Description:
The chain has a 5-stranded parallel beta sheet, sandwiched between helices. Strands 3-2-4-5 form a 4-stranded parallel beta sheet, sandwiched between helices. It has a 3-stranded parallel beta sheet with strand order 7-6-8, with helices on both faces. It is globular, with a radius of gyration of 21 Å. The chain has helices at about 40-60, 70-80, 105-115, 125-140, 155-160, 175, 195-210, 225-235, 250-265, 300-310; strands at about 30-35, 60-65, 85, 95-100, 120, 145-150, 165-170, 185-190, 240-245, 270, 290-295, 315-320, 330, 350. Helices cover about 30% and strands about 15% of the residues. It is α/β, with parallel strands linked by helices. Helix 4 (about 125-140) packs parallel to helix 5 (about 155-160).
Amino acid sequence: MSATIVRLPEPPRPARRSAPLQDRPVDGAKRVLLAAPRGYCAGVDRAVVAVEKALERYGSPVYVRKQIVHNIHVVTELEKKGAIFVDEVDEVPEGAHVVFSAHGVAPAVVNAASDRGLHAIDATCPLVTKVHREAVRFARDDFEILLIGHDGHEEVEGTAGEAPDHVTIVNSPDEADTVVVKDPSKVVWLSQTTLSVDETMETVNRLRTRFPELHNPPSDDICYATQNRQVAIKKVAKDADLVIVVGSANSSNSVRLVEVALEHGAKAAYRVDYADEVKQEWLDGVRTVGVTSGASVPEVLVREVLEALSEAGYGDVEEVRTAEEDLMFSLPKELRQDAAGKRDERALGGRSGH
């Protein structure tokens, strides 16, 4: 059976520009403020390493349901190594190995994979798994769950799938004003982990105005990496004429970083997948460029942006660090040992963030 490759609605990597960015004069010294933390979080690193280890352990092809993480470069590189990305598990040959993406899946997907005799490896980020467990627990206690997130996003589909009869998706603060619940005394909110912290809390506050007895989840659902990257770009944005966010169009946390930068003082902000997409006109009159990257972006792509900016005279790079990250997650249990049964040296997936 042939598989349908899942690709971003963007062209592949553009050819390198024929000439470097030009070093045009501006009023004052040029500099780059490099946000930290940025780039890979522990959950993303764990998921990417899981696919790499599965290929080493079982050989090519290994199938992956949806994109393992939302980054065009990561997906392309894994395809080169033998990964095949599919939309649904019914596209995977019976008995094959399939990896579930970092965004998580609904129980129905797990059951469908089992029915086909697939060898499933669950690379769901543990922080997403936490939200899944919260949904199950609140549904068991007969709460109505208001899931703050983007309808159609894989993470939201997976969480909602844990308790479909109890979940209502709230896409935005405005939707908080119109959502209908059965019993205002038994309502709880949960959220997609990669949202804007500020927008999520605005939605929660508007929900609480309508439903004063709204329950909170036992802990904040917005993941540490999303929060840390937003805090860092807020600090950079106030001093930046331009902010460049490295990340893909379907990466929720990358898109949010552009919005957060604009909301906190950046005069302009753009998202790029690759350094080749940085436009000369963006730099006109710009003294200070802020640079960051979403949680699914490998550091090599950031370095390429910095090299391109250096060609344009922005060689003075100052890192603006607002937090340290050292969280690591174990790989899925199937991948913690090598083929000989010995503990794999990369059993602990998730390097420290930048």
